[in-house]
């Protein structure tokens, strides 16, 4: 994954609580582990008026005009504001894959489901929690603006809306470092290749029978 020092982009509002992973990406589309091809099916049952089938051409499907994220001003949004317990339900990593491919690089919510939050971090999406009052205020600003730009500065721990004062946020330091550094757990571990190799060599010399010697 790419590092995420900061994100600047159009904000969008999904004013719903307890959005589960089956709503984010319905189970019928989870037939691949390639991490791509899922964005067109994100929020499928809310986003379209017809039932989605894997492999269909979504560009020809009729959008649901009542679904918030289908508003013209939210097209190409990269920052999502939503409510509490976002990403609850089954622990499918396909959900953040779909959101990432849809274009979202930061999600700001009152709370997240634990596993979903970890999966976001693993896939380069910045999950940020704010108080209900702060989310209310920012949602109002987004809704009442034709195009509302927000800067999420992960390095400084700040959300900088185009109107109003910057808002500070807290994040687990380990998670913040992973997002700033980029790369997954395997790439991070390989960064210690020389130290691991040296440790294994010492182990073989000290305990040769463990290696069948």
UniProtKB/TrEMBL annotation:
Transmembrane segments: none annotated. Residues 5-132 form the Aconitase A/isopropylmalate dehydratase small subunit swivel domain. Catalyzes the isomerization between 2-isopropylmalate and 3-isopropylmalate, via the formation of 2-isopropylmaleate. The keyword Lyase applies. The lineage of its organism: Bacteria, Pseudomonadati, Pseudomonadota, Gammaproteobacteria, Pseudomonadales. This is 3-isopropylmalate dehydratase small subunit. It catalyses: (2R,3S)-3-isopropylmalate = (2S)-2-isopropylmalate. Belongs to the LeuD family. LeuD type 1 subfamily. Heterodimer of LeuC and LeuD. Coiled coil: none annotated. InterPro entries: 3-IsopropMal_deHydase_ssu, Aconitase/3IPM_dehydase_swvl, AconitaseA/IPMdHydase_ssu_swvl, IPMI_Swivel, LeuD. The keyword Amino-acid biosynthesis applies. Keywords: Amino-acid biosynthesis, Branched-chain amino acid biosynthesis, Leucine biosynthesis, Lyase. Gene3D superfamilies: Aconitase, domain 4. Its EC number is 4.2.1.33. It comes from Marinobacter iranensis.
């Amino acid at each position: 994954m790419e590092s995420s020092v900061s994100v600047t982009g159009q904000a969008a509002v999904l004013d719903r609580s307890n959005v589960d992973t089956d709503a984010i990406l319905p189970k019928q589309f989870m037939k691949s582990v390639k991490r791509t091809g899922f964005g067109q099916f994100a929020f499928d049952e809310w986003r379209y008026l017809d039932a989605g089938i894997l492999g269909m051409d979504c560009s020809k499907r009729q959008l649901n005009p009542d679904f918030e994220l289908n508003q013209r001003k939210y097209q190409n949004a990269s920052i999502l504001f939503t409510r509490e317990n976002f990403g609850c339900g089954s622990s499918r990593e396909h959900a953040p894959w779909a959101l990432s491919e849809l274009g979202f690089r930061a999600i700001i919510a009152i709370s997240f489901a634990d596993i979903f939050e970890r999966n976001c971090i693993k896939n380069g999406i910045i999950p940020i929690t704010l108080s209900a009052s702060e989310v209310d205020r920012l949602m109002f600003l987004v809704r009442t603006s034709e195009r509302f730009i927000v800067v999420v500065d992960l390095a400084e721990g700040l959300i900088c809306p185009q109107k109003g004062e910057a808002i500070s946020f807290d994040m687990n330091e380990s998670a913040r470092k992973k997002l700033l550094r980029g790369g997954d757990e395997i790439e991070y571990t390989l960064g210690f290749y020389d130290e691991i190799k040296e440790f294994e060599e010492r182990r073989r010399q000290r305990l040769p029978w463990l290696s069948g010697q």
